User: Fold this.
Amino acid sequence: MSDTNSRSWSTRRDDKLRRVRAVEAHADGKVLRTAEMVAALEAVLVSGDRVALEGDNQKQADFLSRSLAKVSPEKVRDLHMLISSISRPEQIDVFETGVAKKIDFAYAGPQSLRVAQLLEDGALEVGAIHTYVELYARMFVDLTPRVALVAAEKADRRGNLYTGANTEDTPTIVEATAFGGGIVIAQANEIVDELPRVDIPGDWVDFVVKADRPAAIEPLFTRDPRLITEQHILMAMLAIRGVYERHGVVSLNHGIGFNTAAIELLLPTYAERLGLKGKIARHWTLNPHPTLIPAIESGWVDSVHCFGGEVGMEAYIAARSDVFFTGRDGSLRSNRVLCQLAGQYAVDMFIGATLQIDGDANSSTVTTGRLAGFGGAPNMGHDPGGRRHASHAWLDLKTDPSPTARGKKLVVQMAETFQSGGVPTFVEELDAVGVGQAAGMPIAPVMIYGDDVSHVVTEEGVAYLYLAADEDERRAALAAVAGVSPIGLRHDPRRTDDLRAKGLVAYPEDLGVDPTEASRSLLAARTIEDLVEWSGGLYAPPAKFRSF
Amino acid sequence: MSVPALMSRTSFVELNARERARALLDVGSFRELLGPFDRIESPWLARQNIVPQADDGVVVARGTIGGVAAVVIAIEGAFQGGSTGEVSGAKIAGALELAAKDAEAGKPIRPVLVFETGGVRLQEANLGLAAMADVHAAVVALRAHVPVVGVIAGMIGCFGGMGITAGLVSRLIVTKQARLGLNGPEVIEQNAGVEELDSRDRPLIWSLTGGEQRHAVGLADDLVADDADALADAVRAAFDRGAPAEHASERIAFWRARLDRLPAAPEGMALRKLWTGDRP
Assistant:
């Protein structure tokens, strides 16, 4: 008991102050000298530290990650890295040199092959593969970073940060680190005297440094309408009539992909003709998809809260502040964690595409040989049991008349029955099962669990899985829309009429959808250039999407 | 283009060769010659494990334009990049030669070439090259009697030997999405290196070879929006205008003088500044 009096209760703060003093030699006030970044990192880091390196699917603290890759393994070893999305090669290089040892991450898209290889070689130890929200949540529980390396667009000399349209994850990482007794270092494209607005107060930030070049940002949510096929359009028509209209879906999230891009582009045309304007798709939790511009311009959209920004959409968003969340300076304020939270608890529907679905409607984008992780899709693609407020769509999915039963969020999977190259989407067993076993994961990396999925939309029709009385009926309804894939071939055609009569399966004619009408002329914009026209010239597409 | 116009138009770029020919001809007048059911296809591709196409990627259609007899020769960019092989080349040259015969006999004819091609089909090498010479000769013979109108819409553009054909026509109509050149950007990058030309730098490529640039410097005559009706109108207007007093490709001194004034860094804007208003 006497320990309580003799032990120090401020070791983290004392240690932080000692480290900050050690780094001050490389700084003028709070501003680190760019050329001394590697030495500064060697001064601040201690072997075994838990380090949050900001990198999500859009914004990357790439100056800091390149500097970290140059840190000498003689001085710093065995770091435990927290990286939400592993996107850059140098984020992995540190495991080869021994500077880092362990990693917790959510997504490893471009580096997924290397991650799998290093894991096999024993050069890298995985704490866990999370979803975005879980990884950030754990920063406040048992994975609080000792040091955070983050990215801002602009900083001032007092450490205030302007993160602007791509605020994304930065406030969350900084909050966990700063208030957990850790050290926050932010790279900025520019150090300025006056910020457009303060996104993160300087009091939370220990050091800023001007990056040698602007932070890398990927235009990840831009889909060129030119690549939308008539099959996508047919599926979009089925979704609009069979899901949005049927359940009166007002608030929603769209995944990335051509299927949902097609829906966005059919709102001002097909859905408008159906008289659905104002009745569906008014409130969105969504990245600023350029394909949403025609719907916004046609007055369909009341509000959009964004996870992150999108390259080229800045001026358009600033000019549409009634729709987007923007600061006093006019620019977008995104926030991944809050948007994820909104997407879980406040919206009525998640709809997205996937690569594989099994007979129980479990789905995954994990394919053999790649350890890609989850990103944020599972956060959005589930029915949160903790929701209590009711809405029309949520109540519409309540099938149990009991007074203590609850409603249900719509979790809709959209997939063509076959991927390109004749690979079936509907399979007996997800590749994720084998990948999970090979990687020694305690459970298979299922992206969206079948028991959360309420609807599946294919080019064949819509399966209303939430209406199924039991597992057998659920599987039969799914198989009825799975075409000639291995799951679809299981389907007993004699049962279809029964399922259609019960409303578990709807084919185009049941929904009043004429497949011959599914043509590209229904799209409100057929090219990136059309989107520029719709935006009145405000949308500035990235170079790789230009064809004029 | 205004938003209502965007919504109501038919994109010409998105049409396939057959639909393009139909869109340029007077409504209801389309009649295809040597169509897919005649099965005149390349004898060379199957030997190289490439599935041939029953029209070899060229649609020849008779009909009328503005009520006058016409022939539209449309190249299908979706088949082998619109490349010219033995059969497709013969279809183009043959159609032009028949048109020349009509014109020589005093019969009215309005010939239109719709380009969407990277040039000669490499799998048919010399046969494609020989066909290209026939096409060039046929255009020159035909344009002595009637105007020959060319259209480049995109997305492939018009390159290689067909780039020369485009230079020979009486009037060339392009969209902003069109590209026109001799060597395509990928070929230049492959031969001269990425420092010379980065073929993935799309704004750079269009600033050099794009429809807007080619129109601004006088290498194309009309810049028209990607709208099937607008393009059909432009084609009709080109014929109503009649043959030019002198074809652009005959004005050798003019082009030579331009080349003599080529700036040190001949990038798109510099050429536009130098050559705009300096129309052939």
Remarks:
- The mean pLDDT of chain A is 94.
